[in-house]
Amino acid sequence: MAYGIHLRPLVFISVLLVAWQFAASRQPVHLLPDPVQVGGGLVELARRGLLLKYIVASLFRVTWGFSLAAMIAIPGGLAIGWHRRTEMALNPLIQLLRPISPLAWIPISILWFGVGDVAASFLIFLASLLPLTVTAINAVKSIPAVYVNAGRNFGLSSAGLVYRVLYPAVIPQLIIGLRITLGIAWLVVVAAEMIAVNSGLGFLIVDARNAGSRYDLVVAGMVTIGIIGLLLDMSMRSLEGVRSLRWSYSED
Amino acid sequence: MLQSVMAIAPRAVETKLRAEDINMVFRRDGKSTNVLDNINIEVGKGEFLCLLGPSGCGKSTLLNIVAGFLEPSSGAVRIDGAIVNGPDPRRIFVFQERGVFPWLTVEGNIGFGLFKMSRVERERRIEHYVKLVGLGGFEKAYPQELSGGMKQRLEVARALAVNPDMLFLDEPFGALDSITRLIMRGELLRLWEAERKTIIFVTHDIEEAVQLADRVVVMSARPARIQRIVKINIPHPRDISSRRYLELRDGIFAEIGLAHQI
After folding, report:
1. Of A146, A154, A165, which is closest to B89 when you measure between CB atoms?
2. Cβ separation of A164 and B112 shorter than 8 Å?
3. At B77, is the secondary structure helix, strand, or coil?
4. What are the domain boundaries of chain A?
5. Distance between CA A77 and CA A183 in Å, rounded?
């Protein structure tokens, strides 16, 4: 029974692959490469050393942009949420910047940093910064007053209150926010790489099309992006299983 | 003369807490609501005092003022002669069982307030209070793995572990089922008799107040005034079918204006 959970999606994907293969072989015009061609594309990319190189390049940018954003947004958001007046002052600005797609910043980031890793990382940073800040603000605002009062009652200093009450109380919500934002960052890196750099999975897709309409490589790139995204999400999800965090994810 | 003095204070009890002319007005959206109206209370050292009143009457507000979480609009609270101007680890507020920290184990919760102690001393205390409240075997459990009554006991243990002189309990058993509530009352009395803390206990349950308290402060609906103070001079353990108990209980029912009939 236990592996029914893992088996069922695999069976379903296999059926889809077979159907895809069958449909692709009967298409009158060339609309989509078939799974075998895509598999061949993946092997070709791996053999030329490009697959690993591009995955590493994309992950490198996401890691930098996302970590930097988290380092600024989490303490910043917690502080903003804690001080109601700061929140009132900053909230309109945050709401104004939030609807601007990170991709709209592409020209500016190329202007500032040139074509390269820094420009792409900067876009990931922008894409992650506001969602994480908003998550942290909301997390700190939703801490039940009983926890803060209990902390004060036991004579904690301000620093003690932050480390022993505030921080543990917001972690579960922060993890959810980090998980969602990492998903956004992974979406944005692909788009950013199509324009701002000459490597990475996003570049692979654009390059494969421009240099010879290699749609087998385009789809191979897409599949790789999907798999890496899934792995990133699964690794963030595994944090939710930590025993001291489980309280917030279960209905009580 | 001497006799009348004896009647007021049968034992020479030291005053622990004195609330003087407490008024509380909440202002919101330009409207002001008078919540507490000129409250004066004295609580003796080691006394078990119940604040009894209808829901929303302001008794929790009074408890929050006494504990230092709220500042009264006028008046002052003195404990051991000093004016209260904030919460203090010598006086612990016990919330309903929601107050335990869900990210800490039973041990972690009980040890929460013991951060100034040496490791050895802290572990000794944790062990003592785990046993005292009957949570042995659950040291490594998280609150979500405990029942409501166990969480409540955990919160009381966390409070007692820092050895406070006073406990403030805000409807602590309100969320428990009626059987667990009865058991918890017995346990609280056992702990109180063992450690002789001064306790102020807020409740809207008349039976609970008469079962537990040395004195019951009956409060009116908002704005809360002290309507009457009833002395419950029945020794523990109390027989809750005795005539004296029923008299006092029915007296309070009548005081609040409830006919004791359904």
Report:
1. A154
2. yes
3. strand
4. 37-248
5. 20
Assigned CATH class of A37-248:
mainly alpha
In chain B, residues with a C-beta closer than 8 Å to the C-beta of A155 are 87-89, 113
Nearest CA in chain B to A146: B99
Q: Which residue of A has its CA nearest to B167?
A: A153
Residue matched to tokens 């897409």: A222
Compare all CA atoms of chain A with the CA of B159 and give the residue at the minimum distance: A154
- Given B86, B95, B142, which is nearest A244 (Cβ)? B142
Give the one of B93, B103, B144 whose C-beta lies nearest to A149's C-beta.
B93
Cα separation of B173 and B203, whole Å? 9
Domains of chain B: 46-72+81-90+164-256 (3.40.50.300), 102-163 (no CATH)
pTM, to two decimals = 0.80
Q: How does pLDDT run across B104-128, given as a tens digit for each residue?
A: 999 999 999 999 899 999 999 999 9
User: Which residue in B94, B89, B87, B91 sits closest to B156, CA to CA?
Assistant: B94
Q: Do residues A135 and A175 make contact, with C-beta atoms less than 8 angstroms apart?
A: no
CA dist B27 and B41 (Å) reads: 25
pLDDT at residue B148 in the model: 87
* Pair B227, B58: CB distance under 8 Å: no
Residues in chain B, overall count: 262
What DSSP character marks residue A249? T
Q: What ipTM was estimated for this complex?
A: 0.84
What residue ranges in chain A does DSSP mark as E strands? none
Rg (CA), chain B: 19
Over the stretch B151-201, which tens digit does the pLDDT of each residue have? 988 998 899 899 899 999 999 888 888 888 888 898 889 889 888 899 999
Strand order in the sheet with B82-83: B31-44, B15-28, B74-79, B82-83
A171 touches chain B (CB under 8 A): yes
Residues A48, A44: Cα–Cα separation, whole Å: 6
Question: CA-CA distance, A54 to A50, in Å (whole number)?
Answer: 6
Give, as one character, the DSSP assignment of residue B88: B
Q: Is-contact A219 A35, C-beta < 8 A? A: no
Asked which of A123-127, B3-7, B16-20 is least confident by mean pLDDT, the reply is B3-7
> HEC states along B204-256?
CCHHHHHHHCCEEEEECCCCECEEEEEECCCCCCCCCCCHHHHHHHHHHHHHH
CA distance A168 to chain B (A): 7
φ, ψ for residue B203 (rounded to 5)? -155, 160
